[in-house]
Amino acid sequence: MKRYLIVILVALTAFTTKAENVDSGYHIEDWTYEAQVHENNSWTVTETMTVEFHEPRHGIYRHIPRLFVRHHDGLGESKKYTYRCEIEGARVDIFEYHLDDADNDQESLIIRIGSEDELLTGRHTYIIHYLLVYPDDRYPSSDELKHTVLGADCNTNIGRFRFNIKFDKKLPAGLTLQTLSGEWGGEGNSLNIVPTLTSNSISGEASQIAPFCGITLQANLPEGFWKGTKSVSPIRAYLFAALFILFMTMCLVYEL
Predict the structure, then answer these.
(1) Which of 200, 120, 132 is nearest to 164 (CA)?
(2) Please, which pLDDT band fits residue 2 given cuts at 50, 70 and 90?
(3) Considering Cα of 180, then 182, then 185, then 187, what sign does the dihedral take?
(4) Are 149 and 216 in contact (CB under 8 A)?
(5) pLDDT grade for 105, boundaries at 50, 70 and 90
(6) Three-class SS of residue 117?
(7) How far is 208 from 158, CA to CA, in rounded Å?
(8) Which tens digits make up the pLDDT trace of 5-44?
């Protein structure tokens, strides 16, 4: 009985914390995500966000995920791989910005957009650029496409989100694409996104997205589709995994 009470308490704590973190002082009217995907599985990304501030604010935070875990089942065994993406050349047009990852154990890159000396109200448009570099997926029988176009860390409503991803090379004919959308950790497509696929692009959109909802695309590709990907050291990957687990454990203990 005690075990069930602890589980319920943790669930209620997480729900309450998330509700408290919703920010109604602004909302995102429109968010466009555009990417050019290169042969080495690096992504040149431009994001355009139109934000409406309902009360004076210095600006916004943009979290770009770069630490993630993948599970792969094959040949009768299951393996878990931990990866850390590199994010290069992050910048914001026009507005003052700062890059920071000191407070989240490098789980994501934080772009703090805005000036301490200026308060904003009304509608403003932010344009963000960066290069996301995926390491070798370490799968011997296939290559993987797994990419989060919208992380589940946005703490306000999004009126409309659109993504358009173009590839330098043609995608395999008959590609089966899985779309995961909704709250973090979900395995369904609660935002009902139906992507459009062409020979070298994937696009789609969703409307009226609640806070803390994300969108991830994933598919299996033929082995060798990615060429020249960055190699990854298992020792370094395990170190980041250990730091990530320690960070999440400390957060849970603090909440309890």
Answers:
(1) 200
(2) very low
(3) negative
(4) yes
(5) low
(6) coil
(7) 6
(8) 333 333 434 444 455 589 989 999 999 999 999 999 999 9
Contact 239, 95 (CB under 8 A): no
Rounded CA separation 242/228 (Å): 28
Query: Cβ atoms within 10 A of the Cβ of 37, count?
Result: 24
- Identify any residues that bridge with 204 across adjacent strands, giving them in sequence order: 163
The rounded distance, in Å, linking the Cα atoms of 146 and 256 is 33
161 CB-near residues (< 8 Å, 6+ apart) = 31, 32, 33, 150, 205, 206, 207, 209, 215
Give the model confidence (pLDDT) of 177-199 as tens digits. Answer: 999 999 977 889 999 999 999 99
Longest Cα separation, the chain: 59
At 140 the pLDDT is 79
The pTM assigned to this predicted structure is: 0.81
For residues 36 and 243, which has the higher predicted lDDT (pLDDT)?
36
Residue type for 130, please? Y
Residue 117: CB atoms within 10 A of its CB come to: 7
Which stretches of 85-236 are assigned E, i.e. beta strand? 86-92, 97-100, 108-114, 120-133, 142-150, 158-167, 178-183, 196-197, 201-209, 213-222
